Amino acid sequence: MATIICEDSRTEVPVGAGGGDDLWLAADRAQAATGWMLKPEGLCRGEVCVPVPRGREAQFVRDGAVNIAAFWRHMGRPAVHADDGSLWVLGAGATDRAQVLQSLEAPDFALADLEGRVHTLSEHRGKKVLLVTWASW
């Protein structure tokens, strides 16, 4: 079993053989973990499809399984894993991150105050907000 963190989701999946930098998942598991579906034209999400590179099909698809890490890297997105393969993080590409930064709009999140009441950033849209953070490292 492996934990896959992709965008806002965390999924536990059985992984196939491969190891190393390969993450082989059954096509339905890959879709559940990432939202990308294997179709004859390639790996697709909505109207966007990424074709399997010609001559390298065996590196990406075989026996109904998808090497999701290979596809992720092919799309210019980072795919990193723990040494034992028990945890994978499939990140957003630089282009996606740059577009978010262009808007200068922070993603929504929720935090509890000192009394335990939960507040979201979206409650304060249109107002000036000062976020103060701290970390021990």
Detailed description of the structure:
The chain has 137 residues and is of the alpha+beta class. The protein contains four helices and twelve strands; from the N terminus they run βββαβββαββαββαββ. It has a domain at 2-95. It has helices at 27-34, 57-60, 68-74, 94-103, and strands at residues 2-6, 9-13, 24-26, 37-39, 42-45, 48-50, 61-62, 65-67, 79-81, 87-90, 110-112, 118-120. The strands form four sheets. A four-stranded mixed β-sheet has the order 2-1-10-9. A three-stranded antiparallel β-sheet has the order 3-8-7. It starts with a strand and ends in a 17-residue tail after the last strand. The mean pLDDT is 87.
Biggest sheet strand line-up? 2-1-10-9
- Rg (C-alpha, Å): 18 Å
Which spans have pLDDT < 50 for at least 5 consecutive residues?
Answer: none
> In whole angstroms, how far apart are the ends?
31 Å
Q: Fraction of residues in helices?
A: 10-25%
- State the major sheet: 4 strands, mixed
Q: How large is the share of residues in beta strands?
A: 25-35%
The residue-averaged pLDDT reads: 87
Number of helices: 4
Task: Report the count of strand segments.
Answer: 12
What string, H for helix and E for strand, traces the elements in order? EEEHEEEHEEHEEHEE
Overall 3D shape:
elongated
Structural class: alpha+beta
